[in-house]
Amino acid sequence: MKNIIPALLSIIIGFALSFFGLSTFFSDTTKTTPKEVIATKKETPIKEKSETPTEVTKTENNTKSVDTNVNLTNIQENFSNWNTYHKENIDLMSTFIALDDKGIVMDKGIFLTLLRTGAYISVKSEKKGKTQYQLVAVKESADEKIKKAIVSKATIAHHYFKMEGKKLPSYDFVDLDGNSHNKEDTKGKIVVLKCWFITCKVCVEEFPELNELVDKYKDNNVDFVSLAFDEKDKLIKFLETKTFKYVTIPNQKKYMSKKLKVKQYPTHLIVDSRGVIIKMVSNVKTLTYELNRILGN
After folding, report:
1. Which residues on neighbouring strands pair with residue 194, listed in sequence order?
2. Rounded distance, CA 154 to CA 156, Å?
3. Which residues lie closer than 8 Å to 103 by C-beta, 6 or more apart?
4. H/E/C letters for each residue in 213-264?
5. What is the pLDDT of residue 187?
């Protein structure tokens, strides 16, 4: 009997220890598993959130900024296609929102500098009534004439853009009627300058539209002055056959090329009441738009 009691106690104690050990094992296993599951669940969503939206955003930006009606392949198929599109849609001297090749707004000066590399063309789109031009990479197979033409146009536009914000160089003009024109005479007024010469066909063809601008803004304290290459006698004789309502100044080739650094003709400048150049453009259509924008008409 004495021997049985210790044996029973030994069995009971062993059973208790075994049961406690199994409980601890299952308890530890249960505690460990949720941690691993939670860790796995936390990692996967974070990775997905950091990658997917970025790609979607880029696609949306490109879709919204590039005009979907423009056939980008067709534009670059040959020089004629690009030239037609550019003439009808793009004026690099106008006021526009500049976009990079991802559709992100950028500085106009940098935009024009990139165009000057010949690596891009520009494509027009509209957003909330405002004109946007976006950079589009030139295809390797594109006609070299396209690259050369865009470099030339962008170089002149960039030069004119850099002139904006500068003071109009000092002047003391005498017009065909013998009247003097200088900065004191035009202080407090907006001055519109046209740079031209008699044998410039485009310069003369835009006379009627320029006359309309003179009539439209005659009560807005705006002076319209034309600077011509030609001598006084030749201009007087020429203008007897052409109606041109601008005040005309003869013999101004040196002032235009050296002071204003005009690169093509015609060129138009809008100068504010402080004598600062606020716009420098190359055609009457853009001049009309810019005057309407500046004067609110």
Report:
1. 226, 268
2. 6
3. 61, 62, 64, 65, 66, 134
4. HHHHCCCCCEEEEEEECCCHHHHHHHHCCCCCCCEEECCCHHHHHHHCCCCC
5. 80
Low-confidence ranges of the chain (pLDDT < 70): 1-69, 297
The pLDDT, as a whole number, for residue 69 is 66
Q: Any residues with CB less than 8 A from the CB of 152 and at least 6 apart, and which?
A: none
- The C-alpha atoms of residue 108 and residue 277 are separated, in whole angstroms, by 17
d(CA 254, CA 229): 8
How much is the pLDDT for 71?
A: 81
Residue pair 163/193 in contact (Cβ under 8 Å)? The answer is no
And the tokens for 216?
């439209």
Cβ neighbours of 189 (radius 10 Å): 15
Sheet of strand 277-281: strand arrangement: 247-249, 222-228, 190-196, 267-271, 277-281
Tokens 């027009």, residue located: 124
Q: Could you give phi then psi for residue 175, rounded to 5 degrees?
A: -80, -175
Does residue 203 contact residue 197 with C-beta atoms inside 8 Å? yes
What pLDDT score was predicted for residue 67? Answer: 54
